[in-house]
């Protein structure tokens, strides 16, 4: 009888979900490098009712605790995986690639059966990915694609190109660019060139806005338009801020209005908003963002940021937990895109969640009514 029960447990997610809370997890702080989760995963025949089954430990590698969203992603993943009965090894890597590699290697050595990885640097996880391949451990790329490896089995993310389209179309509609006779000034702040998503966000927005640059409706006074010129290493707020301070003092200090700040995400938007607060006296521009971070949502309410794109990390976490279960059970894994995300070694089957437009008029409905934030958090 016990033997039968164990063999059912070994099949993975579904059965494991009967034993909620049986696993343990280890979370390093951002300052510590990898730790090995030594929690026992052995299955013993006489262990009573709630010993964790082998085959159910999931390693979750997150980039950094510095940005709000990854804390939420990690917390959601851990909660959902544990609720499904998995043991979880959740690690954050202080945006340091070498730390992330060590953490992933430790996850492999400590017996994780599936890895969920949000890469810091898309192309720098080679060694760790090779090790996962050799150990036969499936890897799910979480939010960010891992490049140039065969080790990634699946990719779960939001529709990154659509995020950029939503930002670009917002600007187009707000200023009625299709019918504009005026010229609007714009500056662009994009994301980390090491993050495969950053190019998708940029391209999605630029495919909407480039025609208006070409026909003179939009003028980029700094002349910085190419992705390589507008990228922000590691999505750092301070980097975006100092670049915008330079642009403001070089091109807008004479009283020229800056009408549009296309920012790929909230951390870069925050830098731009800080620069505007310190160095700009003209009419306040449209500022775009992405993530609905708390600081940025407050800024939207205060009129310092025009919009953001809400990516409900709960949805992504649920999808990934589902994928983990399907992989462990040998079932067909749900994907909805088998064309867009080529990591250099081929197209990675992907599940794209839907990003949602957010601004001061709908934040209550999408952020508070849905339980994502409380009113208090936005005070
Ligand atoms: C994510 C964004 C996030 C950015 C910075 C991207 O890969 O998709 O949601 O704002 O990284 O962390």
Brief characterization of the structure:
With 379 residues, the chain is of the alpha/beta class. It has helices spanning 2-10, 13-16, 68-83, 97-109, 126-134, 160-174, 196-214, 227-230, 237-251, 266-279, 294-301, 313-328, 363-368; strands spanning 25-27, 57-62, 87-92, 114-117, 139-142, 152-158, 184-189, 218-219, 260-263, 286-287, 307-310, 350-353, 356-359. It has two domains: 16-159 and 312-353, 3-Layer(aba) Sandwich (Rossmann fold); 160-310, Response regulator (Rossmann fold, 3-Layer(aba) Sandwich), CATH 3.40.50.
Strand order of the largest sheet: 1-3-2-4-5-6-12
State the helical fraction: 25-40%
List the secondary-structure elements in sequence, H or E.
Answer: HHEEHEHEHEEHEHEHHEHEHEHEEH
Shape: elongated
Which structural category fits the helices and strands? Answer: alpha/beta
**CATH overall fold name of the largest domain:** Rossmann fold
- Gross CATH architecture of the largest domain: 3-Layer(aba) Sandwich
Mean pLDDT: 88
By DSSP (H or I, 4+ residues per run), the number of helices equals 13
- Pick out the low-confidence regions: 1-53
In quaternary terms, these chains amount to: single chain
CATH class of the largest domain: Alpha Beta
How far do the termini sit from each other?
Answer: 56 Å
- Superfamily at the CATH H level of the largest domain? Response regulator
- Overall strand count: 13
Number of domains: 2
Strand content: 5-15%
Query: Which molecules other than protein and nucleic acid are bound?
Result: beta-D-glucopyranose
Main sheet overview = 7 strands, parallel
């Amino acid at each position: 009888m016990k033997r039968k029960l164990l063999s059912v447990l070994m099949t993975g997610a579904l059965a494991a979900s009967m034993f909620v809370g049986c696993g343990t997890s280890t979370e390093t702080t951002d300052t510590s490098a990898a730790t090995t989760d030594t929690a026992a995963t052995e299955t013993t025949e006489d262990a009573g009712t709630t010993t964790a089954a082998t085959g159910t430990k999931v390693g979750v590698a997150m980039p950094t605790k510095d940005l709000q969203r990854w804390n939420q992603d990690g917390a959601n993943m851990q909660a959902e995986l544990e609720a499904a009965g998995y043991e979880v090894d959740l690690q954050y890597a202080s945006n340091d690639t070498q730390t992330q590699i060590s953490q992933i290697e430790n996850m492999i050595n400590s017996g994780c059966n599936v890895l969920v990885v949000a890469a810091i640097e898309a192309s720098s996880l080679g060694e760790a990915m090779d090790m996962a391949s050799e150990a036969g451990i499936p890897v799910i790329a979480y939010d960010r694609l891992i490049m140039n490896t065969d080790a990634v089995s699946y990719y779960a993310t939001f529709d990154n190109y659509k995020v950029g389209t939503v930002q670009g179309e917002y600007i187009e509609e707000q200023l009625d660019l299709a019918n504009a006779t005026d010229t609007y000034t714009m500056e662009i702040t994009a994301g980390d060139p090491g993050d495969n998503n950053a190019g998708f966000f940029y391209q999605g927005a630029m495919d909407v806005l480039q025609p208006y640059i070409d026909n003179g409706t939009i003028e980029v006074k700094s002349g910085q338009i190419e992705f390589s010129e507008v990228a922000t290493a590691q999505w750092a707020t301070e980097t975006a801020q100092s670049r915008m301070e330079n642009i403001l003092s070089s091109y807008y200090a004479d009283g020229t209005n800056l009408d549009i700040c296309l920012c790929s995400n909230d951390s870069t938007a925050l830098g731009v908003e800080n620069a505007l607060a310190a160095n700009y006296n003209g009419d306040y521009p449209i500022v775009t963002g992405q993530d609905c971070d708390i600081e940025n949502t407050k800024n939207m309410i205060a009129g310092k940021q025009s919009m953001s794109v809400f990516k409900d990390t709960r949805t992504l976490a649920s999808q990934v937990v589902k994928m983990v279960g399907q992989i462990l059970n040998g079932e067909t894994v749900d994907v909805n895109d088998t064309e867009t995300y080529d990591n250099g070694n081929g197209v990675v089957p992907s599940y794209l969640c839907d990003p949602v437009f957010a601004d001061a008029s709908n934040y209550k409905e999408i952020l508070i009514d849905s339980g994502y934030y409380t009113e208090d958090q936005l005070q």
